[in-house]
Design goal:
single chain, 176 residues, alpha+beta, Nucleotide Exchange Factor Grpe, Chain A, domain 2, 3-stranded antiparallel β-sheet, 3-stranded mixed β-sheet, 3 helices, 16% strand
Length: 176
């Protein structure tokens, strides 16, 4: 039995081979460990980059959702503007003040609802012409009005959340 005895190798060639093999094994293990550390480093960098990209994606998606929600009603609102024009034209047709008053009350209620949802009428008469808000269809001479000021509104314009949905159709005083 060899339980209590140590086996000694006196052969130097065996000793050298063992040391060389041990060094070779450890060098390979160190090389593999360095490769794993490099892979780990690359994976950490990739993970961090993906985290940042995902956070940016979430923020962009949130902004897009808010914008879509904010302006989702635009088409519907544009379809309502001819209705308001018709109410204006109808008021002018009737001579009976009670009928005019009733139509005006309906129009005011519709405008109130639209204003509660962010729709605003564009100011015109007496205002300076702004091509972003107004569409001039005629230049007129008016000695009482300033140049480039609006002298008449032919069709109301509207904005929704500060975006022009329909420019106001106006007459503008030309420069003298």
């Amino acid at each position: 039995m060899t339980e209590g005895k140590k086996i000694q190798y006196n052969d130097q060639s065996t000793d050298k081979t063992f040391k060389d093999e041990w060094i070779h094994i450890h060098k390979n293990e160190l090389k593999k460990l360095n490769e794993f550390e490099n892979i780990s480093s690359v994976l950490k960098e990739t993970l961090n980059r993906l985290k940042v990209e995902f956070i940016e994606y979430q923020e962009r998606a949130k902004r897009e959702k808010e914008t879509t929600k904010k302006f989702a009603l635009e088409g519907f609102l544009r379809d309502l503007f001819p209705l308001l024009d018709t109410l204006d034209n109808t008021i002018a047709v009737f001579d009976d003040p009670k009928i005019q008053e009733g139509i005006l009350m309906v129009k005011k209620e519709i405008i109130k609802v639209l204003e509660n949802h962010g729709v605003r009428e564009i100011k015109t008469t007496g205002e300076k012409f702004d091509p972003k808000l107004h569409e001039a269809i005629e230049l007129v001479s008016d000695p009482k009005a300033e140049a480039d000021s609006i002298v008449a509104e032919l069709k109301k314009g509207y904005t929704y959340n500060d975006r022009v949905l329909r420019p106001a159709i106006v007459k503008v005083c030309k420069k003298n």
